[in-house]
Fold this protein.
Amino acid sequence: MEDKELIAAAKKYREFSYSPYSKFKVGAAVLTKKGNVYGGCNVENSSFPMTNCAERTAIFKAVSEGEREFEAIALIADTPEPCSPCGACRQVMVEFKIPKIIMANMKGDVQVVTLEELMPYAFTEF
């Protein structure tokens, strides 16, 4: 699957965002090694710590379906620069060793980084 296809899937899931407080819609799509795509959006809560990001929603959906090996994740939001994942999402990406992170915005800007570039000093099982 090409990066632009994964970004398009993330963009589709962005439309499902439940963001009544921030009005900040985020979509994500994760590609597994089996070739399956799982999408997610951010889901807010009036108790802000209970909010779940799009990236974690997509990853957790995949994991809940038995997936454990991933190729890439794309995320998209209406930001000036390509949307970067938060620290919690970065750590979940480390946990599941997602090697390629595709960050995009609604203007069409894209930045692709490796997991090592995104989290050079991540917590790991070692």
User: Anything to note?
Assistant: The CA atoms of residues 82 and 103 lie 5 Å apart. Residues 3-118 form a domain with the Cytidine Deaminase; domain 2 fold (CATH 3.40.140.10). The chain is about 30% helix and 25% strand. Strands lie at 26-32, 37-41, 70-77, 100-105, 110-114.
